[in-house]
Amino acid sequence: MQNTHVHSGKQALDVEIVSTNPNNQSINGSIYHILPRSQRSWSQGSQIRFWVNNASENALLLSFNFKEEFNEYWTINNSGVFFLQSEEGDLLQQEILYGNLPIPANYQGFVVTPFYSFTVPDWNTARGDRIMNLARIESYAIAVNIGENSPSTFTIDDIEVLAFDEMKTLEIQGVESILVPPSGEHREQYTAFLSSLAKNTSEEVSAIWSLCQPYDPLIKIDDKGNLTIPAGIQSSSVILAATYPSQGNSITKEFTIVLDNGQSSPEEQIALETPDKPTQVVDSTDYQSSKTFETWATENRVLFVIISVSAILLILSLLSLFQRRIK
Description:
This protein is mainly beta. The chain has three helices and 22 strands. The chain has helices spanning about 265-275, 290-300, 300-325; strands at about 15, 30-35, 45-55, 60-70, 75, 80-85, 90-95, 100-105, 110-115, 120, 135-145, 150-160, 170-175, 175-180, 185-190, 190-195, 200-205, 210, 220, 225-230, 235-245, 250-260. The strands form four sheets. Strands 1, 3, 6, 7, 9, 12, 14, 18, 21 and 22 form a ten-stranded mixed beta sheet that branches. Strands 2, 4, 5, 8, 10 and 11 form a six-stranded antiparallel beta sheet that branches. A three-stranded antiparallel beta sheet has the order 13-16-17, with no helix packed on it. The longest helix is centred in the last third of the chain and has 26 residues, at about 300-325. It is elongated.
């Protein structure tokens, strides 16, 4: 705990990433916290939020998991959405990357993860019905994937469960790759949709369109989502953004478009579009085999007892036979 780079209060948690585990070369680590009885009811919550300061020049890969009392673990899904949130409450929608929350370099602000972006992980061995029950949560853990981010330090503060309405998501529909025209200009239209996972609905909405820096000033987008790419553009990509006011605060979704100007090979374009896959942060993998057996034995107690008794009787029979032969 330190009292220098805090968001509120007097102390925050500083996490120093030194190196991989020297014993097993693991690049994953986690900080585990058991909740006091007074903080175990999350039943009115819809999302987890915490403040983070990533002072590194590299992205930080975080994950979060929690455990129901007497039941299963829940962790960040392999894919889905989370949000970066400003002090004013505005949201920037982000994509979960193989079970990790990618925190941008030099980012300082809130990270918000809706409960619909959590799932029961493969490594879970606790019994349960795979239905999220937030009435009794006994513990949580913040995990980090070191990757290329060592040595470095990040700060965590103000971990809280928020009881807002369902967080809707903003989606952009349109082509992901555009061939730069040899002459004139090319126009492509993009459309924004607001989606509700709970209601399984999606509706087209009017959004505020913009281009993210850096971009060629000759590239334009109007208030209807019409993107104009003129001839001769040398950029390999452009990022457009749609912003929609929601729940008193705005939601912004960014969308990357690959520009084919004839200077890149198809292999290079694929490499540009496909991010490297980081290792998914997990709670523990050292005892998977024993945990798997424990789970099977618990769920098949009668069969386990029969097999155990049969094995004991077989051993006794063999010992008796061996003893008679000695006599």
